[in-house]
Amino acid sequence: MHGFEGMRREVEDVVELMQHIQSRLPITEAARTSVLSKSWLHAWHTIPILRFCVRSEQNGNGMKLVDVDHTLIRYLRDNIPIERFELLIDIENQESASHAEKWIGPVVTTKASCLKELSLSLFLYGAPFTLPDEILSSGENLSKIDVSSPLRHHSVIWMTTTTPTPVINCVSLRELQLDGVCIGEEALHDILSSCSRLEKIVLIHSCKGFKTIKVKNLPCLYELTISSSSQDVHNTALEISHVPNLGVFTCDLPFLFKAPAPHSISLGSSVTELTLGGYGMVTGNACLKMIESGFPFLESLTLDDMRSWKSESFHFTCASIKNLTLRDCQSMLTDIQVHAPKLNFFWFGGAALPTLLFPVSSTLFKQIFSLSLSLPVDVYFFLKMREALALSCKCDIYIITYNYTTTMLPFDDIDMDDLRTRLLLFPPAMNVQHLWFGTVDDECLWERSLFFDAFFEICHPKYVYAKPDSYFRQNNHFCRLMLREVLEKNTTPYWPHYLEHVRIRRDRYQKWETLTNSHTSLLASSVYMIFNLKWR
């Protein structure tokens, strides 16, 4: 006990140490430390990190406007330093908007201000909100500005300058993150040209109506993200140059290389993580050749929208690539070949599974397949899937099926005898860790489907996540399948013979329960279930 008391006194001798502990706790838990002693109370009352969560009653418990008022009045009156200010607030009316504006300005401009980080998450319900000019004109100590509008489709946050000759004093700025913030084109360019120490820039739906997005002469810039919808950046030119240390580049601008406006993009050879999204961004193997030649140290490539891909093949060679992600691939893409000796992770998402070949990769650890199936699936689909599963140590599979007809099953063409004959030399793969399965607009067709009969011929997944149908919430085919073929044994099942036991739970926070007849009513209902399957 004496040693514990001595340690407690040593901690309480250093205010900064107590405040560091408090800053790493949830707000309610940090506040409770103030009852430990007067030292902890003083540390809490003068902590330089202020985090406020002001939510409306329908959105959960939070602080009241008056609580924030009292705290800020005391800090400003007593000149207590504020190094970090975080505010999450529901702005439902002019009163809450005025309060938020009233808080932000003084925190930045107070004489004792040493504000380094400003983080604002503003939930606006219908009304626009304008950030104070002081953020840009008086934030000489700011190293991080992070402003987001989670409800960006309902209203907007304006960040602009109201004076003809704006003064940008954020000379210490390292991070600028704007999500759903409408900033003026001149204001943004003034910031980027004045803040030469910027290391991270994130602009998400924040460049509406721009003629040009200019990112130039930033020698310290390491991470750059630019993302907007087609309506926001129609005919917008992108100019990037003199960013010699850029390592992470994400660009999601639809029709970027087809827009009438000229583009001048020079990223340098230091890029290691590249993400390209937006319809029309990458259209064929010529674009891949440009990526191969332009980024000799590339380790991660994500092509987020492959709907405009114009070729049946995807051939990519890269000696340094470790992670490759292809999303929204259309059914016309039937052949993927990746020559990458260091490839460790591969993610494919699309409407059909192509033939996969990794000729020189012996390091592939994990694959993820995310498939949206709306076409009839035959034996050939399962044979290709079985071949693909053999390429890596672990696999996760997401499958969503779309049934838009009541006359034809999407899996009518599965010949189970033919499939079993073809798989005689290939036992079910045991490396599938997780299978997520869901249906859209499926009223009753899955009750007669052979999909899982065929699927369990090629693999034995460890966990199955079964969701109710998106439209017909009363239908959860996998739950009914487990009820009929495992518990009730109404048919002559084939694959259940290989199940040693089944455990279930409603969500990841519950304990696993062994599947028994006591769960019959549960499986017959429209619930989300997780199954843990142990195969013989």
TrEMBL record:
Pfam families assigned: LRR_At1g61320_AtMIF1
Highest taxon listed in the record's lineage: Eukaryota
Domain At1g61320/AtMIF1 LRR: 85-251
InterPro entries from the UniProt entry: F-box-like_dom_sf, LRR_At1g61320_AtMIF1, LRR_dom_sf
UniProt name for this protein: At1g61320/AtMIF1 LRR domain-containing protein
